Amino acid sequence: MNTKKLLAVVSGLILSTAIYAQPSFSFSTPTKVERALKLSGNNRTELENVLRHYAQARDSQKWEAACFLIENMDIHFSEQFYWETHEGKTVSFNELDYPDFRSAVAAFNRLSSQEHFHLKSKIIPDIQVITASLLIENIDLSFKLWNTPQASHLSFSEFCEYLLPYRSTCEPLEKWKPIYNKEFEADDDTNIQTAKEVAERTGREVMGWYFVTYGIENKQAEGMIAPSRLLFRKQGSCENLSNLSVLAMRSQGVATTFDFTPHWATSTGRHYWNCIIDAKHVYQPFVGCGIGLFKPKREPGKVIRITYSRQPGTPATELSYQEIPEGFMRTTNFIDVTEKYWKCTDFAVNAHTNNKYIYASVLNGSKWRPVYYAKRQNNKYIFRKMTCGVIYLPTVYSGKQSVPIAPPVLVHKDGKVEIKNINSVRNISIFIPEKELYLHYRIGKKYTLYYWNGKWMKMETQTANTSKGLTFDNVPDNTIYQLIPEYSKGKERPFTIDGKGSICYW
Q: pTM above 0.70?
């Protein structure tokens, strides 16, 4: 080989190495990814194929994205619901075999009229069943979407957390992103480019056909509906609407969060909504559509945002399920964003317990429901960023129930914190008048006064002879109270009494 040819070959090799080898980047498997691979069992090959695919392509950024998904995959799962006969036989029924949801419901009703069915569910870990093709297809499309005008402002971490994931919450695992991308894509002649514009267009399309079933849902609700069935049914709960919004928005390149309050603190129920991340990295909340317009109209016990990645310092990183109340606190992929929506403050609780964690509960639907946690620090438990205008009851979780561990904590609207230690020695007389939105007397109906002393204690029952109000004597001072009518539906709110005898509902 002559000198010129030799130089040409060497130059080509050098150029090839410079372009493809990326000597500054190592495709060696990170420790956290290796830990996840060990948990994947027989599915390890599928995950390794994803990593190998991007390593061979020398695409370091997609490889890092794949690592992000895999290292956090062990905390994700599908909750799949199915119907079963009394004999334990799974009912063979697929609603997608019918032309529309109404036809599917009618067919199922005919089938169930012949034999009684009951709803069952099973948990399927992602890491044990996910395929390489699903992950690769999802990653490639996500990167394509990242390069669109509505997503190009996102940092890599924002992209990974709120655009890249192959799932939203715990819906059944499906290849939804390509389907949703086509379903909600804009017309060719559109000039829509910003995240907000794309989100508003997509939201209007969703709300054009989605029917919220709140208040009429079957008691045997099917949890998070599969992406394909959401498009088929065109209806569902508020929770499923928020999930649908995540799927639809992300399929169009709009980074979208899933936010919720586990329980309202001053009323019954809960709520779900979303945020997009706009070009200025501002999180703009919405329900369905109307980007940036949503704001809670009542006090949330807490506001939680679901993430894909695990978060440090959550109870589930240290405790067993049996020590944690049911709900989001049994997961590790969430952050507290309450202060983004409401005025907040911190408060400390001195509790006589050795528990590593205690919980703050709010009165919702006549029950104390846990909404957040505090870890023991120097014999104290400090609750962070708690909603102002709320009564919190410190509790521990034991025997599948919340047990009071300290007196109620009143967090006033101005941020002042007050501990309600009952004064059983000093008794007072209280007059309870009608109060719009809270109390209307019905003549001839019975009303029972309760006060809090470690639990609700029955004080006295009276019959309303007038709509003006009722007077109760010898009532223990400095605690919280409830007046429960005989026709109660569990929506009554607790109240306190100030030094002038005025009643304040919470």
A: yes
- Judgement on whether residues 266 and 141 belong to the same structural domain of the protein: yes
Q: How far apart are CA 75 and CA 314, in angstroms?
A: 13
Contact present, 483 and 442 (Cβ < 8 Å): no
**CA 408 remoteness from chain centre:** 26
**Is 222 in contact with 81 (CB distance < 8 Å)?**
yes
* Domain's final residue, options 367, 399, 419: 419
Instruction: Please report how many Cα atoms fall inside a 13 Å half-sphere around the Cα of residue 85, on the Cβ side.
Output: 11
Domain end, chosen from 359, 385, 419, is at 419
pLDDT for the residue numbered 189: 59
CB atoms within 10 A of CB 214: 13
Please identify every stretch of the chain with a pLDDT value under 70, giving residue numbers as ranges. Answer: 1-24, 188-190, 217-220
CA 396 to CA 289: how far, in whole Å?
39
Q: Which helix (H) or strand (E) holds 236?
A: strand 235-236
**SS3 call for 127:** helix
- The span from the CA of 278 to the CA of 92, in Å, is 45
CA distance 2 to 227: 63
**Phi-psi domain of 173 (left: phi exceeds 0; alpha: psi -120 through 50; beta: other):** beta
Beta bridge partners of 82: 120
Residue 341 CB coordination number (10 Å):
19
Distances (CA, A) of 383 to 84, 173, 267, 327, 361: 43, 36, 21, 19, 11
In the structure encoding, which two tokens stand for residue 228, read together?
């394909």
| Domain interval for residue 222 | 26-77+123-298
The DSSP bridge partners found for residue 84 are 90, 118
